[in-house]
Amino acid sequence: MSENTSQRSSLWARVTDPDTRHPFFDQIEKLFKNRTAVVGLIIISIFALAALFAPVISPYDPNENSLYDQLKQPAWHSEGSTKNLLGTDDLGRDMLSRLIYGARVSLTLGIVSVGIAFLCGSILGAVSGYYKGWPDNLIMRLMDIILAFPHILLAIVIVAYLGPGLRNAMIAIGIINVPRFARIIRASVLEEYEKDYVTAARAVGAGNRRIIFNAIFPNCLAPIIVQASLGFGAAILDAAGLSFLGLGAQPPLSEWGAMIAQGRSMILRAWWVMTFPGIAILLAVLGFNLLGDGLRDALDPRLRD
Amino acid sequence: MTGFIIRRILIVIPTLLGVTIVIFSMLAITPGDPAELLLGERANQEALESMREYLGLKKPLYVQYGLFLKRVIRLDLGETIWTREKVSKEISERFPATIELALVAMIISSLLGITLGIISATKQYSWFDYGSMLGSLVGVSMPVFWLGLMFMLLFSLTLGWFPMSGRIGVETDLTVVTNFYVLDAILMRNWGGLKDALMHLALPALALSTIPLAIVARMTRSSMLEVLRQDYIKTARAKGLSETKIVLKHALRNGLIPVVTVVGLQFGILMGGAILTETVFAWPGIGKWLFDGVVKRDYMVIQGGTLLVATTFVVVNLIVDVLYAVINPRISVK
After folding, report:
1. What pTM value is reported for the model?
2. How many cross-chain Cβ pairs, A to B, lie less than 8 Å apart?
3. What ipTM is given for this predicted complex?
């Protein structure tokens, strides 16, 4: 019994005791002490919960038309009602429900496009930094070419050729973000390459792939996590822009950027149709930027600008 | 120094070649007959055949690319599908509008951003500092097209202070010389026209300047904070100079060096970001033209517009790098 307690307390000590615990928990503690990061994390959690439980918490089906409820004003207006808290659009669809389902689209899109950028960028960056020489030159010149296009322009062009739609928008945004990840990983790998543990790993006979992914890679994670958080926000913003132009999500899918485009034609009659999706985008992107900034301060003070 | 500049210019050549390869291969990998894509569905057999000949479609891909490159170097960008106008002519009519908008947005964002950054740095951890840094985080998180629409709703539709869209009012008579309307109005001493052009510029430029403004403010703040910690600033204080003089004369000169790069890079990004802003405000520049081309699947417009914007972006970045080397002598040592 007493042995069990001491075991448990030692486990607890491994998390809380600053002298014996794994450095990972130091970082977590630092992160939670950072007010910026915590605020960002709270905002993101709200959006993530909304996205996860969308069918449970949204009052109506986001695509349910209602001829009798067209362009209802938000609840606090004289003509508004609590039935539709944020009013309805021109097809009588509940704005709040559409916004909640919109969180699903935006977060999925962020995960997929950042995932593409992260995966391709990590591999290219690691190869580039580890092997140096011609593979490095080739990969980095390729990245320069992608960076030679202003950000959203390349996404627009890629979608213009692949055809509009959410899937192609995610691919396009993923591609344009590859160079950012590749450059960061390359720089970290170049730095880590010189360290003793890499030499030690080679001395015990580890292969190149093992050295890159099992030894070096975990030590490069801090800047990548920061970039992933900032990239997530940027991806949501770019996707909203693409959808606003009609190149991303297609109707009737409730995507925030597409909702703004739809509300644009009734800007004078119904300001709320256009206003609320914009606020949703702003808050979600702000959440990821706050978290990214906080993470940078907590995990990697070198990156602070 | 000269060596650095020459090396920097040489790096641009493969990048620009890469850009042309990307633009060329986009059309090549798009399903369908490139000749038909470029001429539109309504083209007759004869025109299609001569277009195939012109593009060299029967020859191997690298020969086709060579022909493409040759045309690009001669600035022959073909004709648009919809207007049957020379692409180069349409570009020359619209490019000044985009440059004008981007320049004004850049002036707004640098002046405001640098001022905010300096005040934040001198009053670090004050309410002003927290407020402006939170403001700049909100700024970089802003969907600019939405902000533009909000400006439109508030300042032109509700308050009626500014015109809603376009470059100039229908009733305004302005002789166009350079296609930069503000410049044209000044040249012609047409003060009514100048006012009208500036009023039309205000909202799109303000919307477009949001993100660069936020970035410049953050950059100025951190750079100034670093400079203000230096020994020579302590010396200046010890000499008894006034704080204003220290900040504006001693610190700013070094503090602004990294800001110059950021401002320059933003200019290139503004050119791309203008696509959304120009579409919102019906601003007749390259961005809106390119977007209309995408909607109408006018591949000649897409090719020409992309090539122009990407080349401008690369050249602006080159100029920024060279300028940076000129104002910061430390870089040439590397």
Report:
1. 0.86
2. 128
3. 0.84
